[in-house]
UniProtKB/TrEMBL annotation:
It comes from Dictyobacter arantiisoli. This is DUF2690 domain-containing protein. Residues 1-29 form the signal peptide. Keywords: Signal. InterPro entries: DUF2690. The lineage of its organism: Bacteria, Bacillati, Chloroflexota, Ktedonobacteria, Ktedonobacterales.
Length: 168
């Protein structure tokens, strides 16, 4: 129950951050502004993939290829350690994922999550180390946001000590 309440609190906080920040109406701007991806036709996305990419790892699925890029990033500090969250996008697969790092490589219990704004589908992953990335959400025509967390209570990742989010 604690884990569910903690996750609910984290998602709620990310939603508040998302709605309080300036968010573009569309993730796919034809303007070509750095940090935003351009319109992507379905023909540029791997055929028959679609929502089957939800929950898949970006590195083992082929989505984290040379065409993948950082949509937006944010920096912060946790206990004197610099932290960074990236929101990635893969035009090959039409997917987003979060990539959370302790940039001086200090080891913590970490979690990264990504949420698709159209239906709030959230994917996440946990790791003890200095870097973790979330599994992906398929989002070729909608915006997404990513959050990174430093977590305590190692056995079940049920407590949150720090959170950093970034939205499109």
């Amino acid at each position: 129950m604690r884990k569910i309440l903690s996750l609910f609190s984290s998602v709620t906080l990310c939603l508040i951050v998302l709605f309080l920040s300036t968010v573009n109406a569309s993730a796919h701007s034809a303007s070509g502004i750095p940090g935003h991806h351009n319109n992507i036709s379905n023909s540029s996305v791997i055929p028959y993939a679609g929502n089957s990419y939800n929950g898949q790892q970006p590195d083992t699925s082929g989505c984290w290829d040379s065409s993948a890029y950082i949509v937006k990033s944010a920096t912060g500090t946790y206990n004197g350690n610099p932290v960074l969250i990236y929101l990635w996008y893969s035009p090959t697969c039409g997917t987003n994922w979060g990539d959370f790092q302790i940039t001086n490589h200090v080891t913590f219990n970490l979690s990264a999550q990504v949420t698709r704004n159209s239906d709030y589908l959230t994917e996440s992953d946990y790791f003890t180390g200095w870097r973790v990335w979330s599994t992906m959400v398929y989002a070729p025509t909608t915006t997404a946001y990513a959050c990174g967390f430093v977590i305590y209570h190692t056995s079940n990742f049920d407590g949150q000590a720090y959170e950093l989010c970034v939205s499109q």
